Amino acid sequence: MQATVVVIGGGATGVGILRDLSMRGIKTVLVEQKDLAYGTSSRFHGLLHSGGRYAVKDAESAQECIEENTILRKVARYAVEETEGLFVRLPEDGEQFESSWVTACAKVGIPAIPITPAEANRLEPQLTRRIRSAYRVPDSAIDGFRLVWQNVMSARQYGGEVLTYTEVTAIEHVNNQVAGVKVRNTITGKTDSIACDYIVNAAGSWVGHVAHLAGVDVHVKPDRGVLVAFNHRFTSRIVNRLRPASDGDIFVPHGSITILGTTSSPAERPDDTIPRTAEVAALLKIGQPLFENIYNYRILRAFAGTRPLYSADPNAAGRSASRNFTIIDHEKDGLTGMATIVGGKLTTYRLMAEKMADRVCGKLGVDAACRTAVEPMIADASAADMAAAKRFFPAYSVNSAVSRLGAKLNEIVKVMEDNPAKRQLLCECEMVTLAEVEAMAADPTSYTLEDVRRKTRIGMGTCQGAFCGFRGVGVAVANEFIPAQEAPNFIKDFLEARWNGIRPVLWGNQLREAELMRGIYGASLNIDGAVKHENK
Amino acid sequence: MRTSDVIVIGGGLAGLTAAIAAVGRGRQVTLMTSGAGTLAIGGGTIDLLGYLENNTLVATPRAGLSLLPPEHPYSKVGSQVVEDAVQFFLTMCQEESFAYTGGLDQIQWLPTAIGTVKPSCLVPLTMDSTPIQTASQVVVVGFTRLKDYFPELISKGLGTIPGFQKEYQEIVVDPGFTGGRDVTTLDIARWLDTIQGQQVCREQLVKHMKPGSVVIIPPVLGSRPSYVVRDTLEKMLNCKFVEAVIMPTAVVGLRLRAMLLQRAKRLGVTIMEQAHVVKAVQESKRVTAVITGNVDRERSYPTKAVVLATGGFFGGGIVAEHDSIGEPIFDLPVTAPAEREEWGTRNLFADAAQPFAKIGIQVDTNLRPVNSEGQVVLENVYVAGRNLAGYDYCLEKSGNGVALVSGYKAGLNC
Q1: Closest CA to A72 of A364, A419, A325, A352
Q2: B131: Cα separation from own chain's centroid
Q3: Are A511 and B320 in contact (CB < 8 Å)?
Q4: Residues in Cβ contact with B105 at an 8 Å cutoff, skipping those fewer than 6 apart
Q5: pLDDT tens-digit profile of B112-151?
Q6: To bridge B122 with a disulfide, which of B17, B32, B46, B76 should be the other Cys (CB 3.0-4.6 Å)?
């Protein structure tokens, strides 16, 4: 294979760079060791910051946030839900901080509109009545899976390519000039090499590993954050606690659920992402002052991710480390043709990609301007397409179907038109039709049911895969995406991934759901004993 | 108010079995239910014991019984009771003209919707898989718009299993339902209850049948506890039908439930539906009455004994919150690992029991609840079914087996 640029890492930053470079006419291939958005880009609270969170401590970050927030609400609007946000102060939170926060927001241009506590309670009835002051800010919810997938769909239209489950095994250079990468598909075992002029290391928490392959050092501290997803949307707006940023004081509504996050603690490995009961217990305790009924809300699952914190100061850690991003040109290490981009936050991923792409263009002598701040990721569906979609999708899920499918909407609607059986909802919780699942399962980046989940949201609702998981496997076998004897293992892998998030919250209805899930797949369908039977 | 000899709380397989066994001994029995139990979810096959705790297959259910740990409900009641319960069940089904087949000395391997086979013990005649093993050609039948059923998944999966490697063919029957909503096995079963449904089904299948064909079909051969639909279709098409184990809703379980209810009513069990028992009246170590708390008021029902068959976590017989666990009616002691993190193992499907699955009420050999010192806490309460401690039914494939055996034992003792 050959490309001008190879981007390593299929998170928001990597796909942002892929799209930006592709739009500027540069032949770019992205390689990702797992699936798109497998890492931190899906393991966060899904908050498109207004910047309020950083206003006092880090004015530069806050300014970047409000600017990018404004841009993404337009160009990425099919991944964004404009919920707006509240900052609320409780009696135990200092008044001093509030006044410096108000000043800081004004200074960087974050519109923070004061409202009365009564108004805050009217807007969000589940909120505590102990509010002392409240402000409205333009925080929004952003879907990391969708954002990444939409970047890829758009990049492909400009010739960008994506290889998932493809790990880089070597970085080749000749006379200290990058020549290409060697890669291996972790599922098929097939190896390949991609010749290129430039490599961008955007591997997030894994940048150190990638840099190491090139013989250079990048020191990143993975910092672990744990989050809890609740089964209901008990707040319509994002709720932040108006106090110096700390653990567990942001609630973010997404579709029909709410996410509470997050913690911050040093992680040993970038993939240290299995949450623990004690961490969840701590989060709930911290969250309770804002939502006093928190223990009565049904939890769906817990999850965790690692932030790639990069700091020139080796002693800075956790929240005191900078959340800004850095581009490291490895020419300083004696290697021409490679740069690492590290740090930052999802809200500023587009800006990071722009800066990185500017740098690459400069090196390659390409004169093309960035258009990602103005060109929408997904073109609006035509009125005719929307009207057609409305005939087949459940009325209240047309918009989310449009946002999932982008340019594929036409194609899917056609399938549903021709074959009524394909209109059936495969996942009732997230309203995903059979036609969509078949189309996404057929994408070359889909190897497992988890990959289909990230593209469609099947398995992310109340049943946590207990029902739709089976149907997903049925679709995969019926369409010959996987051999039938793999079915028990295929479903098992899917359910085990869900279990990682359920095990730390094993009480209430989550526990009942786990018992049902085992009842179906263990007691009824015997997927656990199936392997044993071969040795009968 | 008249005092019951026995109040059975819970209308699942354990509760119904206990009620029928007790009324058969001349007891005056009241069965209180506030839900349908899990027969409609898990199905109506009596899986007695397929695997031991390390996930090794038993040679036969009987052989497995002697290898179980002492805390297992089967070990508590003893193998003779298991044997008697099996006989009791088979006889009852025979008398209700809805015979089951199987026994403790063989494993019934049942084809499942995901293309595996699972070990069971007592199964309705429609699920006896012997015809598949002796067939030359197998036709896997699906139905248009039936959601949780993929004929290819069954044919391709079974085709890799020793004893099931046959020539498979998939056929989709279209019942012609209009309205566009999802179709369930219960819809199709009700359709096949009708002569018109049977004829449409025959017309669509007949051209695919060869001499010696066997049909694998979801559990749709009638909604009622009878073999009339199966017999009719087998006669029409001159071939054998085998129903597969599928996702909920389980029509097979609904049939068994209907049969048990019919028998319980005929024998004189008083059945109270929507009777949500909330607490009990106790005198020393005996329960003298149970109290239901429905929307309008609380009512007290005097009784001489109680069978507690309220289910486990799923049924609500055991309730766990983030910082507590308990049995909600009698506040019986429930033992669970101290650390919540230890309730589940690293993998959901491991070759080992899930600690949370073994959480439940500890009992003596007469199924009466005991405390951590092994002393009986309530002398006239008998525990049956999923709220018993000490077994992981999902791993063992022993769910309905434990419900049947413990329900039978409780019905004998109360």
Answers
A1: A352
A2: 24
A3: yes
A4: B60, B61, B62
A5: 999 999 999 999 999 999 999 899 899 999 999 898 999 9
A6: B46
Smallest CA-to-CA distance from A497 within B343, B347, B356 is with B347
Report which listed range, A257-261, B35-39, B350-354, is most confident.
A257-261
* ipTM confidence score: 0.96
Check if B347 contacts A (Cβ < 8 Å). yes
Interface test mutation site (partner B, options A298, A524, A525, max chain B beta carbons within 10 A)? A524
Mean pLDDT for the stretch of residues B254-264:
98
Q: Distances from the Cα of A112 to the Cαs of A50, A83, A128, A252, B332, in angstroms?
A: 10, 15, 21, 18, 54
CB B357 within 8 A of CB B394: yes
Backbone phi, psi, residue A501, to 5°:
-90, -20
Which tokens sit at A111?
Answer: 């519109």
Q: Is the pTM of this model over 0.90?
A: yes
Nearest CA in chain A to B56: A532
Alpha-carbon dihedral sign for residues A332, A334, A337, A340: negative
- Whether the pLDDT of residue A395 is over 90: the answer is no
Helix H or strand E encompassing A512: helix A508-518
Picking from B47, B118, B161, B245 by the largest number of A CB atoms within 10 A of its own CB, the best residue to mutate is B118
Residue A323's pLDDT is 63
Task: State the Cα torsion A151-A154-A157-A163 to the nearest 10°.
Answer: 20
Token pair 């699920």 is found at B127
Q: Is it the case that residue A317 has pLDDT exceeding 60?
A: no
Q: Is the pLDDT of residue A319 over 70?
A: no
A235-274 pLDDT, tens digit each:
999 999 999 988 888 999 998 899 999 999 999 899 999 9
Alpha helices in A24-114 (DSSP H): 59-75, 95-108
| Longest CA–CA separation in chain B, Å | 71
Q: Which of A511, A524, A527 lies nearest to residue B313, judging by beta carbons? A: A511
B164 chain-A contacts, CB cut-off 8 A: none
In terms of Cα–Cα distance, which of A377, A378, A205 is closest to A304? Answer: A205
Residue of B36, B222, B38, B206 lying closest to B125 (CA atoms): B222
| pLDDT (mean) for A205-234 | 95
